[in-house]
Amino acid sequence: MGNKNIDSNYSMAxxxxxxxxxxxxxxxxxxxxxxxxxxxxxxxxxxFFFWGTKLLWIILLITFAFALLLHFWYRYKTHSxxxxxxxxxxxxxxxxxx
Length: 98
What we know:
Layout: H1 2-25, H2 33-50, H3 55-77
């Protein structure tokens, strides 16, 4: 019976965490506009030059792994997006988890 309560708390925390991650990922304030433009230009250049080659999937996998690593590093340094670090500027009124 005790395990059910723990599982319930875990699933509530997991749901809240996923919701917060999505809010940060799709926030207009999480990345500066120049960074988004640069990111999509880089992706376009990679696709243009490596389309139709076997190397494309390797490069995309490495890029995705690097992006995921960078995401988790920032998440760790900002204490789950609740403190400012680097380009991430925490504002309590805008980034307050509900």
